Amino acid sequence: MADAGGIFSDCFIAFVPSNQLAPKLISSLSTILTENGATTVEYRRDGSIPIDRVTHIVSNTIDFPQYIDSQAYMIPVVNTHWITISISRRKQAQVRPFSPDPRMIFSEVVVTCADLPQMDKESILGATMALGGQESKDVGRLTTHVCALSMSHPKIVIALEKGWKGKVVLPHWFDDCFKLGKRIDEGPYLLPDPEILKKGPDEELDIPSNNNLVGASSANPEFISLSDGNSGRPPVTVFQDKLILLGADLKITPRLENALKDIIVYGGGRLVQDVDECNTLICQYRDGEQYVRASQACKEVGNLSWLYFLIVHNDWTSPLRRLLHYPIPRNGIPGFKDLRITVSNYGGEARIYLENLIKACGAEFTKTMKADNTHLITARNSSEKCKAAPEWGITVVNHLWVEESYAKCEIQLVNIKKYNHFPPRTNLGEIIGQTSFNESRLRDLFYPGGEETMSPRAKRKRKILEAAEDNAYSHGPAEGVVIGEVAHGGDSDTMQEDNSEEDSIPSAAAAKKGRRTAQLVTPVRPRPGKENETPVVMSTGGRSAKAKAMNMLSSIAPDIALYEKEKKRNAKPGTPFGGKRAAELVEKEKAESAKKPTSNKDGEDEEDRPAKKSRPSLPGIEMRIILTGFTRWVGNQNKEDQDRRKLRDLGIQIVQEGQPCDYLAAPHVVRTVKFLCALARGPTVISSTFIEKTLETGKLQDVDDFILKDTEAESKYDIDLERSVSRAKAHRGKLLRSIPIYCTDKIKNGPESYRAIAEANGAIFMIYRARSGSNIKPTTAEQDNFAPPEPVYLLSGTTAEEKQLWQRFKDMAERGHMEPRVVSPDWLLDVAMAQQVRFDKKFLLEAE
Fold first, then answer.
1. Are 51 and 497 in contact (CB under 8 A)?
2. What domains can be seen in the chain, in order of their start residue?
3. pTM for the complete prediction?
4. In Å, what is the CA distance from 113 to each residue of 131, 155, 668?
5. pLDDT tens across 565-597, in order?
6. Which residue from 60, 322, 677, 742 lies 20 to 30 Å from 832 (Cα-Cα)?
7. C-alpha pair distances (Å), 114 with each of 146, 188, 803
């Protein structure tokens, strides 16, 4: 029975925006959750999720930076279907079947069995549910699959008569998926005419395409189409606030380095020259001082292929997610050195990927198969090579063998069942590229130790990584998966993320009482000598698993406090280094000044001659600020030039509209184009009195004392400025991604200012004129899978000429199965200011 306050009344939920979960859908789902009792949790100032204050994270991907944190704290991560299914059932659904983790291969599969032996039925249902699926007693509206041997069972006949749209599959499909540990296409197993029973394994089969390998088929790609920040392409906002070090072992050309720098800087990041300063290292090999120090400090470490992937897709992904996005071992994997390997039945990117992976392992790749080959990697066990290989003494395996050998950093035994399994009508190229690294294995081999030199931040991150690993399954198809825990015990406040800036806000766990208890599988780490120990099913009672995770993390608290203290001290403008590093810098300067004097061409020591007055070099840029509504320089260009030079000497650069910035400065909240475009990047908004005070005193001020507060404007525009900034940091310029916005060309103030605001937030912006053709492809509700129509907007004024366009626009939208909304431009300004896709009927323009 649902709680009186709603089915989500005990839930504190945060969303992760991504290509798979756009902000407009987040806005709609947030409304639904709130109406059903949930509390949606806002992002922190830096755009991160306050892990200590949430009970659930909604994300359609595990590719977000705080996924490891969620595993450590056992916060369940669920996809959006969890919300819709819970609403339809009028009670909270289990979290396991809605995990976005790709290792839960039967996530969203709801299966029932028809006319199978009891033993087979229990085996299929048990394994399916262990890997994210659900059992359905009968064929209902939510059932996705029926496992059967024929179509004649009454359960199937009745369901089809009622218009059921699911799939009837042979049990062989489940069996093949279990054996591989991957989900393959069920097409060849579909009744009533399954291909595996109709065609032989030797008959021709198309080579499938595979999106897992896009941008990940080489560890060191030779070419990428790069363009700098002045080319008109949107900024790569995934680099916002990133401090990136291009490793010394990359050996890239100065031209390429400059192109990369332009893209990173235009996206809001910075290139640095020292490992201690960076938070992301790009290098080629898993060795050297830079790699070891960065890895021990738990910084992101990837290769050029990963960097290019981020540039092209502008979405964060872990460099550990794809094998060739991580630096390669310089001497390969032990055991591969003398192997000669060829491949068969793979095509396109998959073949290129395998060639590069084999070489990275340290083996020799051969395009053709000869008698001296040692291994054949094939996607199907049917080709001339496959037939000849056993006669020549060549081992035949599928690609999982080389992938898992590379991921585990040691050669795997070839007689393991999944490496020798070949479903008869499946090309295994469809599941290539799904294997990931285990960070702890990399650490043991390539960067052990380092605890004595770890910063408080690195120690905290290391504890989180270890806790996440302890909470994960240690072996099997779901190795590395953490389901999370729904119920939070009353002792969950024993370990929280440091939240010193928001101490007055209690944690979600402390705010709610009487949470539901939950049953979940808690993996038990194998003891020495018991590597194959089976995980134990435990009843957590809502406490034990969470308490375990919290206890493991509790030792971080002193490190967090020290780290936050250092961070605040060092974050003040004008103090880029603190404590030890400042002393090191002074010593370095002394050493340089004590260098031996050089001789000039006349043999005299330069020291004995009057020294030439050299122009002091400018300090590094510590703050990039966009100014708007600033009246100090109006009509006085000379004063502006002088002030800009003074600011630059203090490490402050005043940047132009559209450029990356750390801060947005204004006397108060203003709805100018410059303010709204800059806000989309998520800069800290400060009062322009910071600039005034710095110029007056000639010293950098503490920027935290100048955070802009404008309660009058916030009330007028119905916003919370701090929330707007945190949302912008999370959305990274993609608030209006995929939302089409049209604008009349006769609109007051012209369409270009609205274009700038819309495109700064990722919208698709188009001019709508009297002679405009239909820009929306006509579709029907059936073609759109009966999804509700998406809104499409027309920004317009109320002149007679503009009103004539309204009906034509509405007709065009309705033909495309979209909901037309003719609105005043205030709607766009409201959304950009709140950094939230919201709508109110007051913005609609109605024809008289």
1. yes
2. 12-98 (3.40.50.10190), 114-198 (3.40.50.10190), 215-325 (3.40.50.10190), 340-435 (3.40.50.10190), 623-731 (3.40.50.10190), 740-843 (3.40.50.10190)
3. 0.81
4. 17, 9, 65
5. 544 444 444 444 444 444 444 445 445 544 444
6. 60
7. 7, 19, 60
